[in-house]
């Protein structure tokens, strides 16, 4: 026989989510069995009803056969042989009727009655014990909630003892009901197998006895099956008796335990605390905000998995992640006049989680365990030995502190020191293999430099480049939607670009800073799933470089060409272009450069060519001869337009001719 799944009675007291999940499987199995039993009972009752109908039908048939002789036919009373034959058949039918009656009675006793008893006794018992268990569990939760709300400052020993006694009684009641419920479900796994086969055994035996006089062949076919089924039922019954005895003994042993099993914080003074744990599981109360100033507490099952703190509600199949414990800090806190509260703070200090343990032992072990995990001891070869070395640090974490900032500063300093040591070791191991480019990337851009993924227009720039000293429209509308032309500009070239990002850089000595900025901007967009870009018109003139809103024609950003120190396109993706801008107001500062990364719909070399041409025009504007020579040396391109604007015309009549003379189109 295959092994039968069973609930472990030893886990009834802990009442973990895993046990509750397995219990729900057994309860679901019992529900399915109940539905199937009802359907099976209906089918068997139909067979029994048909058998009773057969008895009545055969009895009526026998009477009708005997009544043939009494019929007054118009042509005569009938053939005497027919009458005698029918009388013989009537006797046979009467004998069959006796057999049918006996068969109906046997079906009622051996087929219908066992399945009814199984439904009314076993399945009803499981359902009743389930309801009792649910009520006991709810009473235990209510008593635990009252116990958790005991004040810490004004501790009333009498009230504490009464509530502790109430918790113990509720827990004992829940334990007893769970043990009975588990035993009933375990026994049901055996009884359902008997209940399914025993009725069919009675049905088959009745049919064999019915057909045995006229169907020896049928009985011979079943002779080999019936003993086997009978032996199987006896074997299962023996296993059930053995299991019932073992569960009875185990139940008595579990119920004969000490009072400390049921009473929370039973012996807090002499509790043995293990400070070297790297794994922990158990019920905790977690505080969550329900409003601006209101909070609520919920009792959930927590456990650690690697470097994560997980939470699993009752009935859930798996747990969910609460927070990452690596490099976090843990400390005892006073919270809402509750006892045994501790706080877990993220490495950045921006988020924290407050939990409450049931007793002092659990309280200190949780703090020590989280303290060990936060230092990534679980990743070492011998985590227990390392945990012993950090035992003193864990002991300090158990003591409440009055200043969170001081505690967090100490933890941050400790984590930073460990990180610096780890970085020094890695640097010593890989010093020979580090390339010059990797060193340059650190020198050009500071680690952790923030990246701006959108264009934010300063109010001063918007005022200077679009409206002068006039008041702006808050809706972005303007009286003149055209871009104001710059006086004396010899170049205007428009490109369609998407703004990808900008960041501060430490130097503009090489175009490597642009390549590194491109790499970091694209990597940051991929990591944070930022795919939206800002589309702009890039206007290159002989004086400035502008990013213009294509809809409102408002200048989003403007840079003087003399402040653009580096510009280049990407080596592989020519559509990527970047440039470095020097802050004209902070020449003396070290971090006075910013790198901008754009994506063009054309070749980025064209934009670089336009910027370079604008810078050369700006330099050559002071020398007319150099300006004329530069204009003559400008090469023609196969696509795009290049426009030179000369505002120095002699009179209004020659304005159109001058405009045609200074326009060149490629």
Describe this structure in words.
By secondary structure, this protein is of the alpha+beta class. Helices cover 51% and strands 16% of the residues. The protein has helices at 17-66, 80-148, 157-211, 216-223, 225-255, 360-374, 383-389, 391-398, 404-429, 436-444, 459-467, 512-527, 604-620, 624-632, 655-662, and strands at 281-289, 295-305, 308-312, 320-324, 329-332, 341-345, 352-356, 451-452, 492-505, 534-541, 544-548, 555-560, 564-569, 576-582, 593-600, 642-643, 663-664. Strands 8, 9, 10, 11, 12, 13, 14 and 15 form an 8-stranded antiparallel β-sheet that branches. A 7-stranded antiparallel β-sheet has the order 4-3-2-1-7-6-5, with helices on both faces. Helix 1 (17-66) runs parallel beside helix 3 (157-211) and helix 2 packs antiparallel against helix 3 (157-211). The radius of gyration is 45 Å and the shape is elongated. The N and C termini lie far apart (91 Å).
């Amino acid at each position: 026989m295959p092994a039968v799944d069973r609930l472990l009675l030893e886990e009834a007291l802990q009442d973990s989510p895993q046990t509750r999940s397995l219990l729900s499987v057994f309860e679901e199995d019992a529900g399915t069995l109940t539905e199937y039993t009802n359907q099976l009972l209906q089918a068997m009752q139909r067979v029994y009803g048909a058998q009773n109908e057969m008895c009545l039908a055969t009895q009526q048939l026998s009477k009708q056969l005997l009544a043939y002789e009494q019929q007054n036919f118009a042509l005569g009373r009938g053939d005497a042989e027919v009458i005698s034959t029918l009388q013989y058949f009537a006797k046979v039918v009467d004998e069959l009727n006796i057999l049918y009656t006996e068969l109906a009675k046997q079906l009622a006793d051996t087929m219908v009655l066992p399945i009814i008893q199984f439904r009314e006794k076993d399945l009803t018992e499981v359902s009743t014990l389930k309801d009792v268990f649910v009520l006991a569990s709810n009473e235990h939760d209510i008593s635990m909630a009252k116990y958790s709300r005991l004040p810490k400052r004004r501790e009333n020993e009498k009230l504490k003892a009464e509530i502790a006694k109430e918790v113990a009684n509720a827990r004992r009641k829940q334990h007893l009901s769970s043990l009975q419920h588990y035993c009933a479900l375990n026994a049901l796994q055996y009884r359902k197998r008997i209940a399914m086969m025993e009725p069919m055994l009675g049905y088959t035996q009745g049919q064999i006895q019915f057909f045995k006089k006229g169907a020896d062949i049928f009985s011979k076919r079943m002779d080999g099956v019936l003993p086997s089924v009978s032996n199987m039922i006896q074997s299962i019954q023996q296993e059930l008796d053995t299991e019932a005895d073992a569960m009875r003994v185990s139940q008595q042993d579990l119920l004969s335990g000490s009072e400390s099993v049921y009473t929370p914080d039973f012996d807090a003074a002499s509790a043995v605390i293990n400070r070297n744990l790297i794994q922990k599981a158990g019920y905790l109360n977690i505080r969550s905000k329900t409003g601006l100033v209101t909070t609520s507490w919920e009792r959930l099952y927590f456990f650690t998995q690697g470097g994560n703190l997980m939470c699993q509600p009752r009935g859930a199949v798996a747990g969910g992640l609460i927070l990452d414990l690596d490099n976090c800090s843990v400390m005892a806190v006073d919270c809402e006049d509750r006892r045994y509260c501790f706080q877990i703070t993220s490495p950045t200090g921006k988020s924290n989680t407050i939990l409450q343990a049931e007793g002092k032992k659990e309280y200190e072990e949780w703090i020590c365990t989280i303290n060990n995990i936060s230092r990534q001891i679980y990743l070492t070869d011998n985590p227990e030995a390392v945990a012993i070395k950090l035992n003193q640090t864990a002991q300090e974490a158990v003591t409440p502190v009055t200043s969170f900032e001081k505690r967090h500063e100490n933890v941050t300093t400790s984590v930073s020191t460990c990180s610096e040591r780890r970085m020094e070791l890695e640097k010593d191991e890989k010093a020979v293999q580090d390339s010059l480019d990797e060193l340059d990337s650190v020198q050009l851009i500071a680690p952790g430099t923030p990246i701006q993924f959108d264009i934010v227009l300063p109010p001063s720039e918007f005022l200077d480049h679009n409206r002068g000293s006039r008041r702006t429209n808050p809706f972005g509308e303007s009286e003149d939607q055209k871009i104001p032309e710059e006086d004396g500009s010899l170049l205007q070239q428009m490109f369609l670009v998407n703004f990808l990002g900008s960041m501060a850089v430490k130097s503009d000595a090489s175009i490597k800073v642009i390549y590194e900025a491109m790499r970091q901007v694209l990597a940051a967009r991929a990591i944070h799933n930022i795919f939206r870009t800002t589309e702009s018109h890039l206007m290159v003139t002989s004086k400035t470089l502008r990013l213009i809103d294509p809809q409102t024609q408002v200048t989003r950003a403007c840079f003087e060409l003399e402040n653009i120190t580096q510009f280049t396109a990407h080596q592989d993706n020519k559509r990527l272009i970047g440039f470095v801008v020097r802050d004209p107001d902070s020449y003396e500062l070290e971090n006075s450069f910013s790198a901008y990364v754009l994506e063009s719909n054309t070749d980025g070399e064209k934009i670089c060519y336009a910027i370079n041409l604008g810078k050369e025009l700006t330099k050559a504007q002071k020398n007319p001869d150099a300006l004329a020579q530069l204009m003559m040396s400008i090469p023609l391109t196969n696509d795009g337009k290049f426009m030179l604007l000369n505002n120095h015309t002699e009179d209004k009549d020659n304005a159109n001719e001058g405009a045609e003379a200074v326009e060149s189109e490629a």
